[in-house]
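Hi R.,

Here's the chain you asked about this morning:
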Amino acid sequence: MKTRNESRRRARGGDLFRAVIRLLVILTSIPAWAGQPLLPSDVPNVFDPEVRAQFQPVGVANLRGNPDFPVLILQNTVGGQPQVILLGLDARNGKDTWSLASDPIILIVLFADPETILGAHVDAGFAERGKPSGQFMTPADPTSPGLSDLLRSITLAASRTYM
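And the predicted structure, written out as tokens:
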């Protein structure tokens, strides 16, 4: 025959077990992209697999011909804006490869069409000190000559680049 204290202990043990299970469910349901740096609010979250599925990589280029600064060109496949996203990465990682998952984004340019820039964002730490900070600043005029010159300096990447 059970005493009242034994019943209470078992009930508490069951409550603890259910709490642990709930916590595990919550932790495993957090998306993998949740740990990525925050992108500016007008930039689609390319770390989210559902959003990334709406964009197709159409090219890889290098900023000013430097392979340490790859630029990934993504095209919207479902319609809507932006039509194209340029993501410039800082791939000074000591490897011959780069990754959107691990190398910091330093430049984001959103295009409505081939000639219309919707927005541009530059990593503030990279612009000021040459070290990515994860904090983005928006140029006052996205059509400024400085940004236009920078965009013209993007050259096709060497054939060793794979997506």
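The two ends are 67 Å apart (CA to CA).

Let me know if you need anything else.
M.
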